[in-house]
Write a structure and sequence with these properties.
alpha+beta; 4-stranded antiparallel beta sheet; two-stranded antiparallel ribbon; 5 helices; 6 strands; 18% strand
């Protein structure tokens, strides 16, 4: 009997080719940015790709499996074409970046690392509750000062503070 050795790639070849195509498009037309609504809000990783060809952007969106394709009408000049763009942010952006980063250039990886550091620094840090001194991490806003346990009824705390 002969021994047959089978090796399995982590991704099927057509999927690897599609991801390589998507990484090439992102390398040329894509960007990493930080999205933040205000100075006290958490920063989010946002990634996007822009093109004047809708089918290219829709194919990219289908390969990565997330994001929104939108149209920007730039007909201010007669020779300009419509522009289509794909964007996603937050957890989905991190997932797409993880798929594409191994195939991107050093410059793109450095930009991603720079933005990832900004996003990590904007995450809320653990702090002590102003009423019960329990350590908690703010759930939504960095200005949250009270833990969410029953001992911290904010209205009752403010009434006591005003009375004192």
């Amino acid at each position: 009997m002969s021994h047959i050795e089978i090796t399995i790639d982590p991704l099927p070849l057509p999927r690897q080719v599609e991801l390589a195509w998507a990484a090439g498009l992102f390398e040329g037309e894509g960007h990493f940015t930080v999205r933040q609504r205000g100075p006290r809000w958490r920063a989010l990783l946002e990634i996007g790709v822009t093109s004047t060809d809708r089918d290219v952007i829709e194919r990219f969106a289908a390969i990565v499996g997330t994001g929104n394709v939108r149209e920007r009408d730039r007909l201010a000049r007669p020779h300009w074409k419509r522009q289509f763009y794909w964007t996603t942010s937050g957890h989905a952006a991190h997932r797409v970046a993880d798929m594409l980063l191994p195939m991107l250039s050093e410059r793109r990886r450095a930009r991603h690392a720079e933005i990832a550091a900004i996003v990590a620094a904007s995450q809320p840090q653990p702090r002590a509750c102003e009423q019960c001194d329990a350590i908690f991490t703010p759930s939504r806003f960095s200005r949250q000062r009270f833990c969410s346990s029953r001992c911290c009824d904010r209205a009752k705390y403010l009434r006591r503070k005003a009375a004192a």
